[in-house]
């Protein structure tokens, strides 16, 4: 028995690539639907219209997005135009089964090529791939949707023909995009490329890091991960720690962008799974200690990519926590001081360096920093005095 085929959809938002979604197709249970979707991703089918253009999802837009439900695209008749938010989008679509005679009857501009339902199963899980028909049975063409939550109200009404196996965070990024009251995205969300997938093609990702370095096998969003039960605080702590350590390995390779993504991901797991003290006091303490380290790491990596305001923000988050060890407070003050110095806010830099010294008085480096900034401040004052004297001379 041959393995089910896989295809990919590369997604962009406002012309900026966000990553790749890889779907495994259910050839055995939905052969006709799978063949249609496969070839529209491959782009090797021709339109029955006179222009004989390729039928493809490339350039097509996601025209409907409903949080905690699904994201929908595939109107390759109207949804590939510049204004895919127009009222026509969602009314068209064209399958590989359309023929010239049928198209003439239906109306050339809508195409369709409708085909019958297959595998009318239950939508029990997120990331299920389903066909979006035209509102009645056996009216499938090219429109499809990806669920982002269980959708039992769709059971028995739409063909299930695949599932997302990679790029779940990309689906979530689309799901969390701003939409109007009708679910139409305010941003332009498009399939900028698509095709047949195998492991050699990889899974590019631009808004997160899927690098498995350090053993990070966890999904970007904690709710999507199936490696442990949500009430297993020990396993959750292990996951958050592995993700954090993965970021540190990337940081040591000077891959600051992906290190940031890992630290942010670790923080998401910490925030999701930290138990209340009265539920598990020991794990609460361990999660909180890990959170302090992640805040410090985020402050450092953001400093390295010259995002000084964000670096200050995360250092401040740490300093606002309770029971922070003096050494960690010293690091936060030092990193905040460095960011203020880069922003040429010398008074704030000096204040933070002095606070750092209060928490770590034996550190000779901080003494040098204080002296350096004090000299800069004095030079600035001297320059100001000279400029004033010139004005009155």
TrEMBL record:
GO terms for molecular function: cyclosporin A binding; peptidyl-prolyl cis-trans isomerase activity; unfolded protein binding. It is an enzyme of class 5 (isomerase). It catalyses: [protein]-peptidylproline (omega=180) = [protein]-peptidylproline (omega=0). Residues 8-196 form the PPIase cyclophilin-type domain. It comes from the Eukaryota. The keyword Oxidoreductase does not apply. TPR repeats lie at residues 330-363. InterPro entries: Cyclophilin-like_dom_sf, Cyclophilin-type_PPIase_CS, Cyclophilin-type_PPIase_dom, TPR-like_helical_dom_sf, TPR_rpt. Keywords: Isomerase, Repeat, Rotamase, TPR repeat. Pfam families: Pro_isomerase (PF00160), TPR_1 (PF00515). PROSITE patterns: CSA_PPIASE_1, CSA_PPIASE_2, TPR. The keyword ATP-binding does not apply. One of its GO terms (biological process) is protein refolding. Its EC number is 5.2.1.8. One of its GO terms (cellular component) is cytosol. PANTHER family: PEPTIDYL-PROLYL CIS-TRANS ISOMERASE, PEPTIDYL-PROLYL CIS-TRANS ISOMERASE D-RELATED. This is peptidylprolyl isomerase. It comes from Saccharomyces kudriavzevii (strain ATCC MYA-4449 / AS 2.2408 / CBS 8840 / NBRC 1802 / NCYC 2889) (Yeast). The lineage of its organism: Eukaryota, Fungi, Dikarya, Ascomycota, Saccharomycotina.
């Amino acid at each position: 028995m041959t393995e089910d085929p896989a295809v990919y959809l590369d997604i962009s938002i406002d012309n900026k690539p966000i990553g790749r979604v890889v779907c495994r197709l259910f050839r055995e249970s939905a052969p006709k639907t799978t063949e249609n979707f496969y070839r529209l991703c491959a782009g090797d089918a021709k339109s029955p219209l006179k222009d004989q253009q390729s039928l493809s999802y490339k350039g097509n837009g996601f025209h409907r997005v409903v949080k905690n439900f699904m994201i929908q695209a595939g109107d390759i008749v109207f949804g590939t135009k510049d204004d895919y938010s127009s009222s026509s989008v969602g009314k068209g679509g064209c399958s590989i089964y359309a023929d010239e005679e049928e198209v003439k009857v239906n109306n050339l501009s809508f195409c369709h090529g409708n085909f019958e339902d297959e595998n009318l199963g239950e939508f029990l899980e997120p990331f299920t791939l389903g066909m979006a028909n035209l509102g009645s049975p056996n009216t499938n063409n090219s429109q499809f949707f990806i669920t982002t939550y269980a959708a039992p109200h769709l059971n028995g009404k739409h063909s299930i023909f695949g599932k997302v196996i990679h790029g779940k965070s990309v689906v979530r990024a689309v799901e969390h995009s701003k939409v109007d009251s009708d679910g139409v995205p305010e941003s332009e969300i498009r399939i900028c490329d698509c095709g047949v997938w195998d492991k050699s093609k990889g899974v590019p990702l631009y808004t997160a890091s899927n690098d498995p370095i350090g053993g990070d096998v966890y999904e970007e969003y904690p709710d999507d991960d199936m490696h442990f039960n949500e009430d297993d605080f020990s396993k959750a702590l292990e996951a958050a720690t592995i993700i954090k350590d993965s970021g540190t390995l990337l940081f040591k390779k000077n891959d600051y962008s992906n290190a940031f993504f890992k630290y942010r991901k670790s923080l998401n797991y910490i925030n999701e799974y930290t138990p209340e003290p009265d539920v598990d006091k020991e794990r609460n303490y361990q999660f909180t200690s890990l959170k302090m380290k992640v805040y410090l790491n985020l402050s450092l990596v953001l400093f390295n990519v010259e995002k000084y305001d964000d670096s200050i923000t995360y250092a401040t988050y740490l300093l606002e926590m309770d029971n922070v060890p003096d050494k960690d407070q010293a690091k936060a003050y030092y990193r905040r001081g460095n960011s203020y110095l880069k922003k040429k806010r010398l008074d704030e830099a000096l204040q933070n360096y002095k606070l750092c010294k209060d928490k770590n008085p034996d550190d000779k480096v901080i003494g040098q920093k204080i002296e350096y900034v004090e000299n800069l401040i004095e030079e600035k004052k001297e320059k100001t005095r000279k400029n004033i004297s010139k004005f009155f001379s």
